[in-house]
């Protein structure tokens, strides 16, 4: 095998390893909060049906926020694989979609709108849109084959493309970090919020 074939083989193996590790990490979750909510629901069922609905809403929303973070981590690993392989087909890269159409966007513009009084709610939309715009730029770098009449010019074009992709990846990581900070803050506040306050917020 050539050096290039060996490198592609290594990156494909790395992609498989990352997927397996992600699956393991996502299966190791702390269910203690869910157990507490289950007990609360059981205790409240007879006394206050409205409170039961609020507790269920809280549990469902926390799960959706957790799922959003998991989905984004997976997606980020695929972007890293695309940059490492430098080829859309080899990396099996996802086609960019509008930020309102991805799983997180569907949640944000649907069920998530019930939390629109959260003080950083609008900021989530801005950062999420930036994430999609940045990925689109990375994807477009690899969308079309490089052009060059000489081997030297082709290598230079490949180097420039890789350099640009890595710069965009840094921007993408920064946006993702900020998005995660906001989602974590939202989750923490939601966990601490009283049923009365949550009822008032979403009514």
Describe the structure.
It is a single chain. By secondary structure, this protein is an all-alpha fold. It has one domain (3-202). It contains 8 helices and no strands. Helix 2 runs antiparallel to helix 3, helix 3 (49-85) runs antiparallel to helix 7 and helix 3 packs across helix 8. The longest helix is centred in the last third of the chain and has 42 residues, at 151-192. The model is unreliable at 25-32 (pLDDT under 50).
Task: State the order of secondary-structure elements, H for helix, E for strand.
Answer: HHHHHHHH
Q: What's the gyration radius in Å?
A: 22 Å
Question: What is the count of distinct domains?
Answer: 1
How would a textbook summarize the main sheet?
none
pLDDT averaged over residues: 80
* Class per helix and strand makeup: mainly alpha
Number of H/I helices: 8
What level of helicity do the residues show?
Answer: over 70%
Low-confidence stretches: 25-32
Q: Beta-strand level of the residues, as a percent range?
A: under 5%
Intertermini distance: 64 Å
Number of strands: 0
Tell me the overall shape: elongated
What is the fold's blueprint, element by element?
Elements: H1 3-27, H2 32-44, H3 49-85, H4 88-91, H5 103-108, H6 121-143, H7 151-192, H8 195-202
Helix pairs in contact: 1-3, 2-3, 3-7, 3-8, 6-7
């Amino acid at each position: 095998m050539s050096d290039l074939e060996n490198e592609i083989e290594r990156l494909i193996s790395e992609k498989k390893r990352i997927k397996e590790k992600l699956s393991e990490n996502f299966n190791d979750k702390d269910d203690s909060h869910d157990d507490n909510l289950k007990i609360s629901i059981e205790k409240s069922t007879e006394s206050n049906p409205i409170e039961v609905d609020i507790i269920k809403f809280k549990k469902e929303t926390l799960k959706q926020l957790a799922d959003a973070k998991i989905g984004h981590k997976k997606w980020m690993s695929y972007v890293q694989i695309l940059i490492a392989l430098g080829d859309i087909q080899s990396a099996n890269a996802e086609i960019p979609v509008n930020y309102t159409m991805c799983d997180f966007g569907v949640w944000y513009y649907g069920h998530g709108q019930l939390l629109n009084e959260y003080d950083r709610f609008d900021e989530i939309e801005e950062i999420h849109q930036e994430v999609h715009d940045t990925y689109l730029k990375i994807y477009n770098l690899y969308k079309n084959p490089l052009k060059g009449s000489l081997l030297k010019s082709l290598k230079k074009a490949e180097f420039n493309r890789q350099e640009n992709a890595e710069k965009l990846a840094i921007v993408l990581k920064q946006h993702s970090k900020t998005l995660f900070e906001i989602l974590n803050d939202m989750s923490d506040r939601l966990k601490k919020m009283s049923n009365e306050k949550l009822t008032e917020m979403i009514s």
